[in-house]
Amino acid sequence: MDNHSGVGVIDKAAAILGALEKGPATLAELVASTHLARPTVHRLALALEHHHLVGRDVNGAFVLGRRFAQLAATVSEDRLVSAAQPVLTVLRDRTGESAQLYRPHGEERICIASADRPVGLRDSIPVGTTMTMTAGSAAKVLLAWAEPERMHRGLARARFTAAELEKVRNQGYADSSGEREPGVSSVSAPVWGAAGTVIAAVSISGPAERLTSNPGAIHAGAVVDAARQLTEVLQRTVIA
C-alpha cells in the first residue's frame, strides 16, 4: 500500500498515528518505528496532542487521543439512531413510559431519538431537544464515565455529587426524581461504543406519581436491557 499522498506533513502525521495503533509509545519508539527525524516526530506529536488526536498515558507515553472516539461517535450517529428506534419502541411498550436516547453535545446533551407514550400523562422530549448536563439520570450516566476533566467540570454545577456518580458506575444505571424538572422521574443506562467509551444514554421518563421517587427499583432492569441490546448492535456492526 502506498503511504505517500504527496503532502509530506500529512504523511508524517499519519505515520505517527499508525504507529500508535499498536499501543503506547515513547518518543524514541516513535522515531524508531516511523524512521522520521526525532525533532520532526516531537513537533508533530505535540501538535497532534494539542488537537487531542494524541494523548498521554499514566507513564507519559504517547497514545491515540480521545478525539478519535468523539469523531467516531459523530460519524455513527445516523446509524445509532436507526439502531435505537426499534429498541426504544420495545422499551416504551415494556415500561409504558416515553423512551429517549441522549448523546453529549458540548456542555449539554441532545435527544437524538425518542418513542413517546401514545396516550395519557407523559414526558415528551422531541428529537433535537438540548438539555442540561447538571441534572437528570441521563446527565449522570453521560458524566459517570466521562473523561476526568469533563466530569469535574460538570460536577462543579451539578445537582448531584461525585459519590452519586460512583454509585451509577457500580450499579450500571442512574435514576432521578424531580431533579431536572419537578414531578418528573427518569431512569437511564449507558450505551457503549466499540472504543470502550459511553457514547449515549438510553432513558425512560414520566410523571413521578406513576414512576415514584425511586424509579430505578421499578424499571432499571428494562432500561439496562435496552442499553445492552443497543450496545450489542453497535459492536456487531462496528460503527462506534
Automatic annotation (TrEMBL):
One of its GO terms (molecular function) is DNA-binding transcription factor activity. Gene3D superfamilies: 3.30.450.40, Winged helix-like DNA-binding domain superfamily/Winged helix DNA-binding domain (1.10.10.10). Keywords: DNA-binding, Transcription, Transcription regulation. Residues 7-66 form the HTH iclR-type domain. Residues 67-236 form the IclR-ED domain. GO terms for biological process: negative regulation of DNA-templated transcription. It comes from the Bacteria. The keyword Cell inner membrane does not apply. This is IclR family transcriptional regulator. It comes from Demequina lignilytica.
